[in-house]
Amino acid sequence: MACEFMDILMTIIYLVLFIIMMIFVFSIGMLRHFMPKREILLVLVVAFFIGAVGGAFFLQPIYEELPEITSFVEKNIPNNEETLYLDLSSSLDTNKLHDELSKMEGFKSYDETSISIPMWGFNQKEHDYFDGIVGNIDSHYKNYNVTSNKINIELEDNYTSSQALKSFSDWYKLVYGETISYAQIKAVLVIDSSQLDKFKEVLLEYGVVPTKIEGPVQDTINSTNSSMLSNFEFILVCGGFGIIVAIIGIYMDSVVPAYRRFKKAINTKRKR
Fold first, then answer.
1. Using CA atoms, how far apart are residues 92 and 208, in angstroms rounded to an integer?
2. Which of 157, 180, 159 minimizes the C-alpha distance to 168?
3. pLDDT for 207-244, tens place per residue?
4. CB-hemisphere CA count at 13 Å for 28?
5. How far apart are CA 186 and CA 209, in angstroms?
6. Nearest to 192 by CA among 86, 80, 57
7. Pair 144, 227: CB distance under 8 Å
């Protein structure tokens, strides 16, 4: 809550600072009566520079948060779910991770779907041997694939990576007298969309960043990202806005009297 308050406060401060810069640009434009006409171009250049700098320092941080802002509605729609695809190291205590995630609000399910065991570069004979033997090591191996230097094993439902790695490691030690030093685990985590940020924070504490996220929140973020300007383009737009403000300031003395005469003429016509 405190963090959200600080984010809102900083956003307001940045907006106020940018508005102050635009007021300064507007004031410069209004001074055109006190400067030669050839200096107007210089005023526009300065206005562009101030607008670009203000946009880069004050508006761009807000603009970069736009995808998160647009996803706010999706996060608060009941029953929306996000699916997180995780790549985990075998050195990670996956049982502890599972226990912590399952106790969090918004948890739906967690499944470890496969393991990948890096090996040495197989020759054809070794490849054929592993291709024929892996399926007999553990009956809970749903499917497997042996490449030139890796063994990929899909796991049955409700069968953990720890159990699968133990059975393979026990067999490997029995046959080769060595242990498996590393394996990669693929897992799928399903959560309530409203709790996405909290789950990402917990995963980050374990050094885990989702390789892929699917769901209404992530779809909204991806859609917003695809339609956003690049940082350079956004800065150019802010510079252009500074020029527009300066032009308004330059011609304000001409526009206001003309508007007043137009309004007076309309009122006079109505009275008739």
1. 10
2. 180
3. 999 999 999 999 999 999 999 999 999 999 999 999 99
4. 24
5. 12
6. 80
7. no
